[in-house]
Amino acid sequence: MSDKEEKTEPKSESDIVEERIYTVPLSKAWIMPVTKRAPRAIRILREFIGRHMKVENEDIIISNDVNEKIWSRGIEKPPRKVRIKAAKDKDGLVTVHLAEGE
């Protein structure tokens, strides 16, 4: 089995060590010029998750639904805050999804 096939296998509930729900404030992204706000919001999200889940930025996987939520109004107007669910597996990788109802 190749590496790509192993990565696409769904995680079982037993693989998840820790799961938390956060409301991440992204308002500091609005300090940036308008054409750099959404990329800055993604960096703020990574830093927040790294700090609170105690992992390196390389070990954070942001799902497409979170990315689409931040970019939904374009590069100039990311949301002021976003509610996410972070799940840490036994290998130390943290996967970030939108919280239910978002």
The CATH class: Alpha Beta
Poorly predicted tracts of residues: 4-8
Q: Which superfamily, in CATH terms, is the homologous superfamily?
A: Ribosomal protein L31
Averaged pLDDT, please? Answer: 90
Approximately how much beta-strand content do the residues carry?
Answer: 25-35%
* Estimated structural class: alpha+beta
Radius of gyration: 14 Å
Which geometry do the CA atoms define? elongated
Number of helices: 3
Question: What is the compact description of this entry?
Answer:
The protein contains 3 helices and 4 strands; from the N terminus they run αβαβαββ. By secondary structure, it is of the alpha+beta class. A hairpin with a 4-residue loop joins strand 3 and strand 4.
Keywords:
alpha+beta, 4 strands, four-stranded mixed β-sheet, Ribosomal Protein L31e, Chain: W, 3 helices, 102 residues
Describe the protein:
A hairpin with a 4-residue loop joins strand 3 (81-89) and strand 4. This protein is elongated. The chain contains 3 helices and 4 strands, in the order αβαβαββ. It has one domain: Ribosomal Protein L31e, Chain: W (Roll), CATH 3.10.440. Helix content is 29%, strand content 26%. It has a 4-stranded mixed β-sheet with strand order 1-3-4-2. It has 102 residues and is of the alpha+beta class.
